[in-house]
Amino acid sequence: xxxFIMVPSLLLAISMAAISLAHPDVKxxxxxxxxxxxxxxxxxxxxxxARRADQPPNGIDFPGGVATGRFSNxxxxxxxxxxxxxxxxxxxxxxxxxxxxxxxxxxxxxxSAGSGILxxxxxxx
Length: 125
Prior knowledge:
With 125 residues, the protein is an all-alpha fold. The protein has one domain. It has four helices and no strands.
């Protein structure tokens, strides 16, 4: 079931990136990211008792070698798609502080490691 949802979502994101590449003078649309640890850019850093990725070895290949909360050694898939769309990185984490108008125009990342629709998912996290 997950594959059936992931494929169209990924195709949509790649299509938007391709349009942004074809028209570099057009401002990219806001990017609102939902998902699990593959897209989390630090939302879990603000949950007590949640899995966190703000310690090494996470982030060792990220600029400055800093662990930002991404569950990877550097960039996530959403970072790559955001760069193709014309952004520097994936939008900032929703829980990382007060949002400005500029943040909303760029988009917001709601992804959280261990998230899922089924109740059993949180038991595995």
